[in-house]
Amino acid sequence: MTQSSPFGGRRDFDLVHYTADRPIGPYLARDYVANNVMHAADQTCARVLVNDIAADDTYIVDNVDQYATAYTNALYWHVVEARGPFNISVKLNADGRPQPYRLRCAINAASGTGAVAVSYAILVVPGHSASYNVQASRDVLTGGTNVCVFDATTSTTPAWLTPAANGYIDVNMDVVSLGERSVIDVPGSTSYVGLATAEIGIFVLAYGSAAPRVYGLHVAEFHV
Amino acid sequence: MTSDGKVQLLRPRITTTDLLVGAPVRAQTWLDVASLAHWVSGRGQVVVPQHRVSMVIDNATETLRYYVPGSGRAMYRLWVLDVRSEDSTIHCEGTIAAGTATQSYRLYRSDRSFPKMLTMLEPDITPSSAEGEITIDISNDTTKGGAILRVESVGCWELPRAALDRTAADCGVSLDSLFPRRPIFDDGITPRVYSVSAVAQSIHEMTVATPLRRIGHIGRWGYPLVINSASAIPLTVGPYRIVPRKDRVAATTHTVRCRVYAANPGSVGEVRLVGGTAGAGAWASMAAGTGWSDPAEVDIDCEDQTTDDGQPAGGYDTVSVEVRTDGVSAADVYGWCVYEYE
């Protein structure tokens, strides 16, 4: 179940119930007001962070690759490219335990050389992480919970790859970096807005001389 | 500033099991409901999901354009960019401008395994949910010996609000008025500010009268695709994956809308969306000359909240953007955006 609201959808309600001298019982409060705002939090606030598929360069005059490539013959995990930082949704239970949102992850990729297997992984790390490459590479290598690995491909035709396990990553406090940014908000004076940021890395492992190619990515939040 | 309109960093939680038949609704519950409403309303949306740009900029300025609605609350947008120097031994420098703000950048090396992630804060946004164009200018200066800049990807999201104003537009309510032992009253003089009726009014506004959207689903800007065919031409090597939000209880689909930016000198270009489940939508006209097209729409399978990962029955839906002309006059398509319609 990916819904927290009682009905899993918004319901129309009439404001006449909330005017003067009308009692407000648990029925109205739960089935309409609470339901609607919980559904909005579940669905509206689960956002698409990355969505991409390469433009067809058959029709592009300028000769610039529309896909991401990596070094060839690199027998270790390394980052192809990165996305973010993003402000990530996190929810806490009443007792302080994190109740995760998840990041739905998909990758559209190919092997640059037929018959040479290439593996891909999507990784989430705290925003502005100074140890991005070292720690992130270790997380991918050891199969951390902040990693989504996909089945290796030998095809040179771009396709959405099958995740090796779940096609999502749990977002908890370990993969976000808490910070603040000063803004001019309602009263017209400086105030501070809290951010929980994370970055996304796309990693590749080629089992031979190949030029891995990333054609598309899809990373989106969803409520658990 | 007042703490009354505060938007929390982490999503507040409502305990619906406290709402029992025959029992009064506790003040704590109303406070939780209002706090969650503030979080929803002030959180901000991703207006342009990050996407590959693949443009190289010599001593020049490129303007990247997107056509999207806003959440109606945001006062800042944050642009995120992945950029590299094209030469591994030469630095790269220039400026990035969005709205009223300009900032400089300087890159020192171009190891391709080490992305350079830049952020650019665009202030002074007038909160609006209307559809319109937003832009970012990326300039590269090679006159001081710098290298060509390669723009790998760009995205844009709205910064959350620190606090909401207690107005109809912001949907903020007085949190202080909901504390336990405060009087419950109908705020007839200044609607939408105090007590329980204000909570109901603001939630009515954001979920019934003008429902908030999961806005950005697809954004693309880059080198133009030159289309000169009377047959429908998909603009990408494959369809996009897309999962719109579920709206009403019985909803299984949601309408998404697309606009395309193109040079269309012959005024013959048309665009349509093709859904993986729904098939092709109706053709919409491109702007005469250069500009954004009329909206093209199609219904897409929405998120299924009864599954562990939200995947709809039959798998995730897809969408493709297709263009055609009369086969005589070409259209140069620079970018397109797909977002939820209402």
Structure characterization notes:
The complex is a heterodimer of chains A (224) and B (342). Chain A has 224 residues and is mainly beta. Chain A has two domains: 1-44, no CATH class; 46-223, Jelly Rolls (Sandwich). Chain A is built from two helices and 13 strands. Chain A has helices spanning 26-43, 132-141; strands at 48-53, 68-69, 78-87, 91-92, 98-99, 101-110, 118-126, 147-149, 159-160, 168-171, 177-184, 190-206, 213-223. The longest helix of chain A has 18 residues, at 26-43. Chain A is elongated and about 75 Å long. The mean pLDDT of chain A is 86. Chain B has helices at 27-42, 195-209, and strands at 46-57, 60-68, 77-85, 92-98, 101-107, 116-122, 132-140, 149-158, 216-227, 233-234, 240-241, 253-264, 270-275, 279-280, 284-285, 289-292, 296-301, 318-324, 331-340. In chain B, strands 10, 11, 13, 14, 15 and 18 form a six-stranded antiparallel beta sheet that branches. In chain B, strands 9, 12, 16, 17 and 19 form a five-stranded antiparallel beta sheet that branches. The longest helix of chain B has 16 residues, at 27-42. The interface between A and B is large, with 105 and 118 residues.
Short note summarizing the structure:
With 224 residues, chain A is mostly beta strands.
pLDDT < 50 stretches of chain A: none
Distance between the termini of chain A: 7 Å
Mean pLDDT of chain A: 86
Count of discrete domains of chain A: 2
CATH topology of the largest domain in chain B: Jelly Rolls
What is the CATH top level name of the largest domain in chain B? Mainly Beta
Specify the number of helices of chain A.
2
Q: Which fold name fills CATH's third level, the topology of the largest domain in chain A? A: Jelly Rolls
> Radius of gyration of chain A in whole Å, from Cα?
22 Å
Radius of gyration of chain B: 23 Å
Name the structural class of chain B: mainly beta
- How many separate domains of chain B? 3
Spell the H/E element sequence of chain B: HEEEEEEEEHEEEEEEEEEEE
Estimated share of beta-strand residues of chain B: 35-45%
The end-to-end distance of chain B, rounded to whole angstroms, is: 33 Å
H/E element string of chain A?
Answer: HEEEEEEEHEEEEEE
Mean pLDDT of chain B: 91
